[in-house]
Amino acid sequence: MNTQVTIAGVTFKNPVMTASGTFGSGMEYSQFVDLNRLGAVVTKGVANVPWPGNPTPRVAETYGGMLNAIGLQNPGVEVFKERDLPFLAKFDTKVIVNVCGKTVEDYLDCVERLGDTNADMLEINVSCPNVKEGAIAFGQKADCLYDITSKIKNVAKQPIIMKLSPNVTDITEMAKAAEAGGADAVSLINTLTGMKIDVHRRTFALANKTGGLSGPAIKPVAVRMVYQVANAVKIPVIGMGGIATAEDALEFLMAGASAVSVGAMNFVNPYSTVEIVEGIEAYMRKYGVEDIQELIGCVK
Q1: 110, 128, 144, 298: which one is catalytic?
Q2: Of 28, 66, 169, 180, which has the maximum CB count within 10 A?
Q3: Sign of dihedral through CA atoms 101, 47, 87, 30?
């Protein structure tokens, strides 16, 4: 039984990854999860300089999910290179570093500084607000997305995955722009913009007013977008958004994703990633599936 998938020349032992921002760099989770069982660890967002993040409160629970407005708090790429990457190097799993920035120059600086590291791939978070474009996200305008993708591709030493925002009119237009800019793969969906109001305090539940909605509530939207994108571009797609079980993960694979990332469920059940790996294997045995490629994109 073969569960291996290959994306942009990088081979993963299985298609299950962590979603950025929900797993740190695996340090905290390594006491619960055997990281060697995972296809890849996708790290929390890393910027070229330390980011303090947003004011608190930054997290709120919602029906079927959660809102977060952490603001990509991180210690910066130099601390990350000294502390996190050596830790991940101890495990037999692929390492995908999520990169964030406020300007094109920020992204390029961070990507260049990661060029000589053991990172296998880079995932570029284009849902960050572009300070030079009036805070509209890099991934919300096709020409802007094409521009940043092509510039990053010119300097990157590793294959790049563009992480697409679902907060757009047509997700396929964005995926095509990333592909045209030279992206090696795309991942989607990032969080949907949402809001919660505390009726007892008569104020916003998050200091930021809005936050990113993740969790099971967004899964049907995510599956639809992954299906659309997988049928619109030729580069591989990594699917995410509300995956809680092996059946959820299989939906994304059948919709056309070559791999999946598990996010909010890590907070609910820290064992979920390995349980999903084992669940996919059990499904393949039950239905006599010899190679996971038989499942990828099987629903047309």
Answers
A1: 128
A2: 66
A3: negative
How far apart CA 109 and CA 129 sit, in angstroms, is 17
User: In a structure prediction context, what are the per-residue pLDDT tens digits for the chain, which is 300 residues long?
Assistant: 999 999 999 999 999 999 999 999 999 999 999 999 999 999 999 999 999 999 999 999 999 999 999 999 999 999 999 999 999 999 999 999 999 999 999 999 999 999 999 999 999 999 877 767 777 888 999 999 999 999 999 999 999 999 999 999 999 999 999 999 999 999 999 999 999 999 999 999 999 999 999 999 999 999 999 999 999 999 999 999 999 999 999 999 999 999 999 999 999 999 999 999 999 999 999 999 999 999 999 998
Closest alpha carbon to 163 in 205, 124, 212, 221: 124
CA distance 2 to 230: 22
Nearest alpha carbon to residue 264 among 14, 94, 23, 16: 23
Token reading at 117: 């590291």
In the sheet that 192-195 helps form, which strands lie side by side, from edge to edge? 59-62, 65-68, 210-214, 192-195
164, 190 contact by CB (below 8 A): yes
As given in the structure block, the two tokens for residue 23 are: 């797993």
Query: Is residue 215 situated within a structural domain?
Result: yes
CA distance 145 to 182: 11
Q: Which two tokens stand for residue 179?
A: 């592909």
> Residue 76 sits in which domain range?
5-294
User: What predicted TM-score, i.e. pTM, was given to this entire model?
Assistant: 0.97
With respect to residue 300, please indicate whether it lies within any of the assigned structural domains.
no
In a domain, 299, yes or no: no
Residue type, 206: L
State how many domains the chain has: 1
* CATH number of residue 227's parent domain: 3.20.20.70
Question: Does residue 157 lie within any of the structural domains?
Answer: yes
Q: Please state, in angstroms and rounded to a whole number, the distance separating the CA atoms of residues 50 and 99.
A: 12
